[in-house]
Amino acid sequence: METTITYNIDSFSGTTQMQPWQWIFAICLIATFLQGASMGANDVANCFGTSVGAKVLTVTQACIAATIFITLGSMTIGSQVAKTVGKGIVNYTMFADIPQLFALGMMTAAISTGLWVSFATWLSMPVSTTHTVVGSVMGFGLVQFGGSGIDWWPGVGKIVISWVASPTVTGLFSAAFYLAAKHWFLRKVQQDESRLDWGLRQQIYYMGIVVFLAFITLLIFVTFTYDDDAVGMNLGISFGVATALTVGWIVYLHKPINAYYAKRGLIGGFHDKDEVVAKDVDELNEVSSSSEHDEEAAAASAAASAAASAPAASAAAMAPAVGSAAAVSGASQRSNAMSVVSSVMRSDADLRADGLVPNDIWHPELESRFAFGQMVSACYEAIAFGANDIGNSSGTLIAVYQTIEYASVVSKPSPEYWALAYCTVGIIVGLWLFGVKVMRTIGQNITLMTPIRGLSAELGTAFSVLIASYIGIPVSTTHCSVGGVVGAGLCETQGYKKVNWKLLLKVIASWVLTPLVAMGMNALMYVICRGGTQGQWFVPPAAVVGNGVEDSFNDYEYTCTGNADIQTCTLTFPSELLIAQK
After folding, report:
1. What is the rounded distance in angstroms from the CA atom of residue 294 to the CA atom of residue 298?
2. Containing H/E element for 573?
3. Which of 293, 312, 455, 567 is the most exposed place for a label (fewest CB within 10 A)?
4. Is 390 within 8 Å of 419 (Cβ atoms)?
5. Residue 437, number of CB atoms within 10 A of its CB
């Protein structure tokens, strides 16, 4: 014989009937904050590594810019990807009667994501936080309901397709930006140096196009995110602001900005071949001295010191030794996404050793004028990073919070801006505590990426990631960066021979293995946690069923439905249990 008890409840605000849920939310708060900190410590270097390496920005300036623009991206467009992570991977309708297990699975997904990314980084494996969190969320859905627990299409299917398409699309964008500059004015000035003044004017127009495209796409995505019905107003605002900034750059702003970079010594020839080698020698000394306990770094220091003692006239002859030292120094450091990105294209020293044509270096005066463009593209990529990667940490947190808030799995979650802000703070804390050193080290290792190549790769990455963010698809910023670097590199003379295909295959292998490993890790963690908490969820207030009953209820599974609109909770249980406790 069964007894049914019906009583009214309020939507969750810390009341006693929902207290058993609070530990899940508390643990998820900690896990997602640490996950955000790990992204800030490692992944932000994707955006500003080239700018720091080329001395366009100091490390402090890069961190300040990252703080501003990552926050801008996460608070304006970041909610789209968070929705997908929370509701677009598992078949949430299957959890309608057991929302407690949905919250538990999201919590374990956040924990397993942090554990795997930290472990893989310690092993110097280039893994993606995005792939990890998607695999982790799939893990508990498969355990609970098998294949039917996953939203295969359009959910997971679209995400997997985007993982293949996003690096490819980024490469195409990057190649387009690079080839446009190359055939428009870079190669013409290289062939006829008397056309330098003409080339400098064309570069101003080129950067005007870059400014226009960057602002109009960003403003379109932001305005349509908040009101997709006001088409005319959104397009008018976006086009008007982008046009005004572009005209301002062409007419006046380029003068004081280029003057500023010229004063800092960044315009006027710092990409001369001999000076590139000499500058890398100095920076190798800095990297090596900061790793004095590392034997390989010590070897790099010795090689760099020997190179530095050579006369300036023989600097070019020392390029193979310098490149070798750089390779040793880079290998001695723990994996960072940007170190992988920058190594996808072979170094000049490696190319010369194989008798291949070195990477193209255009007229130093013209090439160096892209210093401002590097800063623009870095900030633009930081916005894209905030818009997409914030969903990796905030998506699970929002899913847990709203499930607790309404005592059910919410089918159409609303943006939780406090969660976006909270996880953004985690990213920023990780950046300032640990990312400063990472950014400095990585920047010193990628100085041979010239400004136009860095600009093209970063713009391509930003465009691809922002498009994915607006659609709500979680993609890997690191993988898009790889596609951008390869896309620009393939546009070089004999570019296909300059790709480090062996490393690229390893990176692709990690892309495939990461979600599978994360899936297995979270499946195991979910099974353990589910077994230890069975029956602990919807405990009725003692005033309803009598003192002592709630302890006995912990031995049983039962469900309770309710949300912001339905305030009635019904429990059915063996009547003898209630009698025994009276």
Report:
1. 6
2. strand 568-574
3. 293
4. no
5. 12
Q: CA dist 575 to 262, 553, 580, Å?
A: 84, 12, 9
| Residue 553, burial from CB neighbour count under 10 angstroms (0-12, 13-18, 19+) | buried
Name the nearest CA neighbour of 279 among 293, 265, 292. 265
Per-residue pLDDT tens digits for 497-543: 777 787 788 778 878 888 999 999 999 999 888 775 544 444 443 33
Cα–Cα distance measured from residue 575 to residue 547, given in angstroms and rounded to the nearest whole number = 15
E strand residue ranges, 161-272: none
Torsion angles phi and psi, residue 5, rounded to 5: -120, 130
Write 29-32 long-range contacts (CB < 8 A, 24+): 29/397, 29/422, 31/107, 31/110, 31/111, 31/113, 31/114, 31/396, 32/110, 32/393, 32/394, 32/396, 32/397, 32/422, 32/423, 32/426
d(CA 206, CA 390): 32
Is residue 570 helix, strand or coil?
strand
The amino acid present at 511, given as its one-letter code, is W
In contact, 423 and 397? CB cutoff 8 Å: yes
Contact 156, 138 (CB under 8 A): yes
Residue 26 exposure: Cα atoms within 13 Å on the Cβ side: 6
Q: At 356, is the secondary structure helix, strand, or coil?
A: coil
Q: Which amino acid is at 32?
A: T
- Token pair, residue 250, equals 């062409």
Q: Do 484 and 500 meet the contact criterion of CB atoms below 8 Å apart?
A: no
The closest of 391, 389, 397, 425 to 80, measured between CA atoms, is: 391
Q: Pull the structure tokens for residue 537.
A: 């969820």
* pLDDT per position as a tens digit, 77-133: 888 888 888 888 998 888 877 788 888 899 999 999 888 887 876 766 667 888 899
Taking a C-beta distance cutoff of 8 angstroms, is the pair 424, 67 a contact? Answer: no
What is the structure's pLDDT at 288? Answer: 38
Closest residue by Cα to residue 224 from 470, 395, 412: 470
Instruction: Give CA–CA dist 497/485, Å, rounded.
Output: 14
- 8 Å CB contact between 127 and 120: yes
For the chain, what are the domain ranges? 22-270+359-532
Give the side-chain half-sphere CA count within 13 A for 156: 21
CB-CB neighbours of 575 under 10 Å: 12
